[in-house]
Amino acid sequence: MKLSKKFAVGLAATALVGSLGISAASAATIVAGGATFPLNLMESCRASFAGDSTANSAGHKVDYTGVGSGTGRSNFFKGDYKFAMSDSLYKTSDTSYRTSFVFMPLIAGAINVAYRLDGVKPEGTVLQMSSSTVAKIFAGQIKTWNDASIKADNPVAAQPKLLGLNGQVKFTLAKGKKATQALLTATLTSKAVTSKTKNLIITSSIDGGKTVKKIYNKKPKAGKITLTVPYAKGTVYSITLDRALVGTVSIDATSVILPDTPITVYKRKDTSGTTNNFANYLNKTEPTIWTKATNDAFDSAFPGTVPTDGSFVAAQGNDGVSNGVMGKDGGIGYAEVSFVNERQTAGKPIVSAKIKNGAGEFLAGSSAGAALAVGAAAIDSTTGIVTFKYDNTVTGAYPITAVSYGMANTAAYGTSADNAIAKSYVNYVLDTCAPEVAEIKGYAALPASLVTISKAIAAKIGA
User: Fold this and answer.
1) What is the reported pTM?
2) Would you say 256 and 154 are in contact if contact means Cβ atoms under 8 Å apart?
3) How many domains does the chain have?
4) I want to staple 75 with a disulfide (CB 3.0 to 4.6 A). Which of 81, 89, 236, 349 is the partner?
């Protein structure tokens, strides 16, 4: 008997499901959501979890929506979410809904101070900022980009080293054997150079960017590349990988010229764990400027009343803040590093400022920098709660770092089937997904000691 085409396709699909050990009838989806900080990682993890026949033989799915930490916790406690993520700790008032749940760290990441500023000279300069300058900008006390505080953070100095794109590329510059030459060494990881990578472009200028000459334009390979480039006193080299502007290097002191562009601050309009962590950093490092205790709501943590003259703009989620910044000359905001990186690699005009850490270094946020910050933090061995030490002097530690926590039910709430899916997903993130893709996505997997604590807490899900 000849089978219809539609029936034959259906039969083949059924056979395939069976061969994978997945029962289509037993596959289920749990509704989850919360913090936007880990959203890019959650998107990757939930996609791979659904297709991992070892960790998830039934083919269960996790439907995660980024709505902000505050809304995520609220929806979880009301029972609307079977799993949630929050970058800030739950409040005592939250437990008025109930007290039977587990709360464990799942992932860490850097909160970058992202900005767009056209007209900086030399072109490609990445600005440096102390905690005082960051605090004043987000308190509305610094209103233009050529403010004396920003100028003071960016003195006339040689800049022979450059690190960019989540720490995946590094450049060092030195004088060559001849007076008219310099040696530029580029170190690019396999994560920075893929099959889709096109060209590494290097330009030079000796007049602050008024005249620019292209001196290198080739497809790079992963590893170390040493280039002999033309040099004259005062030369500044600007480096772009694909469409992502990495920054500049120079052997000689160069003046940074800042335009008088008004500053537009992009803040979160939703209740946000990213806001909570960012405001906590500002309060702990500059308490005389950011005088209030931290809060999920930016306006509540703000020292005073948020200006209504258009210099502050509310945006939804890490995505909304990043989109606002890249679309506005003079814009500045705070977002997890992955949201900045994905726009940079797409060639969008957004830059991560280099923030001064406790060791006196100016660093842009990166996976490695976030991991070092977690390693220097105080960790509660019972709850897994991480308390950051913003004044730590660890070399390479990025100061504005956050941890995102997972929330799931014990046996007292939710169905055993939903809890089992949540438990499998949490362990999948900790054991498989985060170690494999966190750095690629711009996050930092938890150190082994913290993973052990999280897994002990996760064992209580559904129990």
Assistant:
1) 0.88
2) yes
3) 3
4) 81
